[in-house]
Amino acid sequence: MYDKSNQQIDKLATFSDTPAPSVTRILYTDNDVAARSFIRELMESAQLTVREDAIGNIFGRWQGSEPSQAVVASGSHTDAIPYAGKYDGVVGVVGAVEAIKALRRAGFQPKRSLEAIMFTSEEPTRFGLSCIGSRVLAGDPRVAVSLANAVDEDNITFTLAANRAGYDEAGDNLQSVAVGNETYAAFVELHIEQGPLLEEQGVSIGIVTAIAGPASLGVEFAGGGGHAGAVLMHLRNDAGLAAAELALAVERHVLESGSQDTVGTTGMVKLYPGAINSIPRNAQLGIDIRDIDGSRRDAVVERVRATAHEIAARRGVVLQNFTVVNQDPPAQSTDFVIEAVKEASEELGLGHKMMISRAYHDSLFMARIAPTAMIFIPCYRGYSHRPDEHATLEDMANGVRVLALALSKLSSN
Ligand code: GLV
Ligand code: MN
Ligand code: MN
Ligand code: MN
């Protein structure tokens, strides 16, 4: 079985917009659509009843003996940021199906139905918003508005992109995706750690107790532009330098928090017109700030905002946009789900450690509507969001075994 799931991961990696070993699979592109078909077939071949909602969250259900009871679910995402690896998210989707198959093979009969889920667009690449599928599923009321206004860099709207991928109702029917608090009795997500601790410490299983809260900012400065040779330095209003200063200020404000749990990244800077001999007249930044403490994170966001205004005034540029795209609270795992994962690890003789997740996951949103916990497995040097991301077959198999046993416990209650 584990061999097969490795083949599945390799196969999924071929649905990519960039050459191997990198994987790039962006929401509603042809490769994303191909990956979706692959996951549906995987679920069908596992004899799961497959359903898809209006934005393409895919659900594969094994009906329990008490189908009216709230469901126990597991899942993750298969989209991949540009030049990513093949394990982030994928392990949690393929692993959920494998865990259910293993339980069926073992003769287990669930009381609560078990469900494997593939969430739409955990990564924010195309429309700037992360965890679209789980966010909408969990009923965030602001999402419909931001998605309705969202366009990608080719000015294609979210709705058009969804329609082209075969989701005709994504525009008008987003509300139908939300499920209530009563739907899921528990949710467990299997994921590579994306950090080095498990590998360094030789521990097989991480049990996530909390997920740091992410905030994303979109910022734009506009200046005068002009000829790189002809305009004297004291006459410039260089939007690019305003952006450079703000990127450094993000680092400074984050470090001022005094906690290693506060992190900030200016991962996107775009300068226009983007010619070596033209003073940037427009600069756009994408800034990501996270913390396990939501109010400390928010204080950093406000300092960045104040500094953006200060830089604009001092440099004579216009702060055309300062948008908080999302500012999500951190999530706490639920004790009885943590306990089920812990017992499963112990019964299987696998070492475990409690840890926080600094990366976000669909679990950040599932925790709003369901008792939730996550299972982390080691990955090579903690590498993630890069082509050399790697998890061993043995570590993935351990994760799937713990997941299967935890699901069996949770679905029997
Ligand atoms: C998810 O990919 C994250 O950025 O944490
Ligand atoms: Mn990721
Ligand atoms: Mn992920
Ligand atoms: Mn992620």
Description:
It is a single chain. This protein has 413 residues and is an alpha/beta fold. It has two domains: 2-212 and 330-412, 3-Layer(aba) Sandwich (Aminopeptidase); 216-327, 2-Layer Sandwich (Alpha-Beta Plaits). It is built from twelve helices and 15 strands. The chain has helices at 2-13, 30-45, 90-105, 132-137, 143-149, 158-164, 197-201, 239-256, 294-315, 335-347, 363-369, 393-412; strands spanning 23-25, 49-52, 58-62, 71-77, 80-84, 114-119, 184-192, 205-211, 213-222, 263-272, 282-291, 318-327, 331-332, 352-357, 372-377. The strands form three sheets. Strands 2, 3, 4, 6, 7, 8, 13, 14 and 15 form a nine-stranded mixed β-sheet that branches. α3 crosses α12 and α10 (335-347) packs across α12 (393-412). The longest helix is centred in the last third of the chain and has 22 residues, at 294-315. The chain is globular and about 80 Å long. It starts with a helix and ends with a helix. Bound molecules: glyoxylic acid (GLV) and manganese (II) ion (3 copies). Glyoxylic acid (GLV) binds at residues 123, 359-360. The site of one manganese (II) ion (MN) has 4 residues, from loops. Its cofactor is Mn(2+). This is Peptidase M20 dimerisation domain-containing protein. Homodimer. Keywords: Hydrolase, Manganese, Metal-binding, Purine metabolism. InterPro entries: Amidase_Cbmase (IPR010158), Bact_exopeptidase_dim_dom (IPR036264), Peptidase_M20 (IPR002933).
